[in-house]
Structures
1.
Amino acid sequence: MGKRIKPGESGGERRDEARRQSDIGATLRRIEVKFATVFRACPDLIAITARDTGRYIEVNDAFERIMGWAKPETIGRTSAELGTWESMAERGRMIAALGDASRLENFEVRFRRKSGEVFTALISLEQVDLSGEPSLIIVARDISRRKAEEVLLRRTAEELERSNMELERFAYVAAHDLLEPCRTICSFAQMLERKHGATLDDEGREYLDFLVGGAQRMRDLIQGVLGYSRAGMAVAQMVDVEMGDLVAVVIADLGSALEVRDGAIETGTLPVVRGDPAQLRQLMVNLIGNGLKFHAEGGKPHVLVTAEPADGEWCVTVADNGIGIDQEYQDDIFGIFRRLHGPDRYPGAGIGLAVARRIVEAHGGRIWVESEPGQGARFRFTLPMA
Ligand code: ADP
């Protein structure tokens, strides 16, 4: 509003006042032009509509481009007349979400183009009073491409999961069905060796040795694949598990290995964790068993199990005084059938750590190793707190 000129003002003062008014007018026009340009050129669709009737008061260029309705055929008509919503229930949903508030942000709606094509848009809107009529300034972005990409991504992930499960099932069934004939070969080869070995010449006995050794190795590998498949199946039950008690049971399980190797297992204070007791027991058998197995010739193995809280989880460490692992192979050894030594030096099928990783990951944790050759190994994994 302009300042009223008082009767006592001089001619100079009146001229100054008129210049000020004209400057304000020019500034307002510049702002208006800027806003009009932004409104017109905005790449997002903008529409100003009456809240109650949905009548279009103003739309921008992007509205024409995205919706397919030209400005002259839009302004003055309602969204119901034009059919710009997928259904009028969509508009009702938007009004309900706005409620008594004056703004609504990032709300997904379904619009219909003039061509009839329906698409998803993300809208933000502001309620304003235009000449006493409650009106909505709606800014909308066509996210149909993003939506289509999301659907494609979800389908691909589902397809991947399905084929993964099929593969796992195949590996399990194949291993399961192979085990029986393999056991038969093993036991008959052993019987043949026991009963008729003496009647064979040296060459014959050597062949039989290969046969027995090969069949046993095949049986171990198949059992390994079965164990690996089982470890990948969903965690059967998540309960509070006293790690101290669990490790005590594992130490009893490993009793003969401990005796044979003249080793020792020590534990720190161990926590209560959340997990599947059978799977966690398998995990500890594999890690502690390896700690006892991979020690230098003549040395006495020593394994220490400790735990500490870290970032809201428990971090458990199984440390040994064994041969250690070169940094180059520290990721590799968690893969199935990955071994750094021949079976004559250290027996095994190369499954233990792959199973350990599956179990830890099924519990939502991570597993890794810290080691230097000749300096022992520290296998560490995280588990949820009870
Ligand atoms: P396996 O014990 O049957 O060989 P694993 O999957 O348990 O299979 O281990 C894979 C390989 O990782 C082992 O062959 C060995 O080379 C290495 N490894 C595992 N644990 C240790 C350890 N505590 N110290 C040194 N090397 C280890």
2.
Amino acid sequence: MINIVLFGPPGAGKGTQANVLKEKYGLVHISTGDVFRYNIKNQTELGVNAKSFMDKGQLVPDNVTISMLEAEVDQAPGAKGFIFDGFPRTAAQAEALSNLLAKKNTEVSAMIALEVDDEILVQRLLERGKTSGRQDDADESIIRNRIKVYYEETAILKQYYLKQDKYYGVDGVGSINDITQRVSAVIDSLKN
Ligand code: AMP
């Protein structure tokens, strides 16, 4: 199995790249943000719970997020591998992912980080907010809070995967196609 953690701050292009890469490599794409938004739209208990955090640009608590992720992975029993997009975002989530994959006799193959400067992120998210309908893209202070949360709680995961020799940084600025080529070069190097 190839299991990729696509990593980077909000607006780095994780979702865009995951959508291309899942087709190219036949992987199951799990975006925790998308699952939360689906649940909000359908007014499930999970959605109601997650919304209060998401609207402020805060992380949804680990216990809620981890059980949701486990359920998503269990729903894809025959998968050739996964692209995790927006997960893990905390050390506890990274541990939970490692344990979950170990139970399936597999592991994270690589964390691929899309590197983009903060001011470009803010501009991209404000632009996306014009059409995404996402409340957390509509307000610059919420966008900046999401980036702050990324540095405070999520960026440490770089060390976690570096220690395991699984961290790959990729320049996340350029055309979608150029960035896909850069990420693909990393994935192809794993297979050999
Ligand atoms: P995203 O679509 O990845 O930008 O996520 C949007 C929002 O969903 C985040 O700002 C968080 O509130 C929530 N979220 C998504 N993934 C996670 C996660 N792994 N842990 C906690 N909260 C998350």
3.
Amino acid sequence: MNKHMENKILNKTSTLEGISRVDGRLKVTGKAKYSAEYSVKGITYGVLVPGTITKGSIKTLDIKKAEGAPGVLSVITYLNAPKVPGYQTDKPQAKGMLKIFYDEQIYFNGQPIALVIADSFERALFAASLVTATYNVEPHQTDLIKNRSNGFTPRKDYSRGEDDAYKNAPVKVEQEYFIPTEVHNPMELHAIIARWDADDKLTVFDKTQGIKATQKNIAQAFKLPPDNVQVTSPFVGGAFGAALRTWPHEIAAVLAAKVVKRPVKLVLSRADMFTSVGYRPLTWQKIGLGATADGKFVGITHEAAGQTSVYEDFTENSVNISQLMYASPNVTTRYKLVSLNVNTPTPMRGPGEATGAFALESAIDELSYALNMDPIELRLKNYADTDPLSGKPYSSKFLNDAYKLGADRIGWSNRNQKPGSVIEKGWLVGYGMGAGMFGAYRGSATVLARMMADGTLLLQTAVTDIGPGTGTAMVSIASDIMEIPAGKIKFDLGDSSLPPSPTQGGSSITSTVGSAVNDACKELQAKFQELNGTTESGKMDYVQILKKHNLQQLEVTTTSHGGPEQNKYAMYSWSVHFMKVLVHPATGVVKVDKAVSVADCGTIISNKTASSQIKGGTIMGTGMALMEEAVIDHRYGRLINNNFADYHVPVQADIPQVEALFVNKPDPYINPIGAKGMGEIATIGVAAAIANAVYNATGKRVRDLPITPDKLI
Ligand code: MOS
């Protein structure tokens, strides 16, 4: 990092609030257009018909009534659907994404068996109710706990030091933990409008986290050149992993538009969301944790079994956090997958790590009570100064600063080590904490930066913004470098015809695209300096320079990615969450009274959007801890709470006060802007922090989420 950059970062860290969301006004006034909201000439409406068995095959399908219903244009099933050219034609379906309307096989309850297309949504919905089917029913398995012994090992088990060394430690805990399925339910339903512009040209307005990935996936499915598929998605109403991949309903809409020769809009229903776009998989875990009498870890053994579908092996890092988070000479991890008659899970914020951290950070809390030691002190005793997995130095780690910041702010000194000993206004009071970590990544992105004659700076790249405020962060970076007001900068995104950017996932976009914006702006600035014959990087009058040289604009297109430093250092973001909870002794109701989440994720680009991101993650983790649970009735293999009346998520009244704090020290190696990711660490560790606080309040250790009142009374 050169001196100039260092100064920039230092200046940046002194910025207080940061700019307001560049698209905030559009969003709150309803002017932001989401995928289902485009008015497309000749639009038609699709409604999916879910199958009603859990395993077997379709025997008969009756679509006559539906076809004859008013306004119906077509009813697509596996019997009449045109072939999707990119589907491999092995029979039955080979492992891979569910091939929609491919054959008679049923792999899970709710699998679509037909798509009705009509001239209005209401008519399509009515006609969908007229489709009937009979089935050859086979016995299904949907219960992970019952089938745990049938799991297989998708990845090699991990071991350093001695296997299961915790067993011989002077002090140990050995416990099982359980998280239920959590279903993706962002406010915006998944939606796509598909329109064929020519036989080999297609436009989709689609909810997606990956513009270029969606373009590629749809192009592959329909055997088109990628450039012939236009993907438009400038606004996304929340996505936490569910829009990382291209799902069967997207293929179905494109197929349907081909059949009816008109544009088709397909919006999933809330019930569809429970079976169509993945979920955080139900996972069983076991931790064995051993320490010396003074709290030094002797060994950690972390085992997990997660569920997946029969047609895909969805594998996540549920046990990896135990390999990484603390300095322990002996670590053993084992991970199994169990194939069940369910739809495939998908990443959900902190995929794997959020699951694993619930078990690990709960177990450490249990150990702290066994040792009668403050849980922060116990963690500091086992603090890793280099990456325990690779032995490499960290690019940056200030987790100890985060512990201190958070402990001070929550009032950790008010915590009583003896559970159930503090009562305020008739409520039991408890304090708890849990830490998190996630890889800090930097990919490759291309950004066009163009200075116009009127002094407006245009930035373009094909990234999406699923909510964190990507545009805002990019404008903020550019404004800082170019020394022009944010209001003079326009950031175009969400369009596949723009220069390529990666999928928004893995907390990597500010690092990746932010660095590309940084590099593009610096290059543009250098071009101006060259024109102007100046060398210092003082404030420049871009408008005057353009005018002097008779130019309408000056632009650069820059591709930016990491270098060898990516391999030299272990790069992670870190978080710690502190909770003060109240538990009602008679009813078992848990209220989060105060939450303080602290992130060590390098330079904070925009304090406002970063705070929102952390708060959102804390709230999501609160849902995981206290409410969210998709329940299958295993007799039928069907979800029984596939709606917002029965599937609970936190609302305003559940979350009185969340504070987000930042260490805000630049990472000197990850990229030129010093910023690491924060999306995932916002949730990782939260559920354990709440469970630990509940234990501190009540003396009851709940190891199976969610912590509902019945488990406390
Ligand atoms: Mo995130 S789980 O990479 O959307």
4.
Amino acid sequence: MMRRAIIGGTGVYGIKGPSVSQKVSTPFGEVTVDIVTSEGTEIVFLPRHGKDHSVPPHLINYRANMAALKQLEVTYVYATGAVGSCNTSYAPGDVVLLTDFLDFTKMRISTFHDGKTGVKHTDMSDPYCSNLRRLLMEKAGQAGIPFAGEAVYVCTEGPRFETAAEIKMYQAMSGDVVGMTNVPEVVLAKELGMCYAAAGIITNWCTGIKKEAIAMHDIKASMDKNRQNLTGLFLAVLTGKLDQNHCSCASAVMEL
Ligand code: HPA
């Protein structure tokens, strides 16, 4: 069975439908997910920061989360993440589709490959599954829900926000939005042969882009606006027919 999952970031703590909670024990720790039934399809819902949003970005057990999805036989994953924008074309309240990332994390275990089973490298030419992205854009078009565009995601270690000088550097390096959680999540998904795509919900301008400091009330307002639309779109794709014939996700891991 190839199951489907949604990973909810900040502000996205559940999806509509009858659900049962399930604990999954992995070699990296225990994870609690909801199994939600939507249109007759079982969807695994995983709140990235824990059920009560208690785990900060730099302390999330990314390997446990992704290993739990694998144990539940999940192959297709959509995720959300709150991001700041450092591209003036994308404003707070917009939603963007992630296409690539720049990794500025520092202290995270970013791989399942610990050398015990040979030397493995994972292809990152299509980090966010192009097939899941295409299907999502099709559904968004049909539903009249606009994505502001595509974005390169900069992942910082957090939990602090960035300095103005760091944001200038990220802009110069082609970054569009900045968050603290998508790496290593997207990488671990690929190591497990999953199709994974993610949307960034823009909650604020990054440090130094506008005169004012980052405002937390901005974050709540854009979350409320986008949560339902986005999870509805995810479900529209995840309750349909999916395969791995149109992407390279199943064969991204290479052994030298
Ligand atoms: N920087 C990093 N992570 C974030 C931001 C930001 O400005 N906004 C929401 N998550």
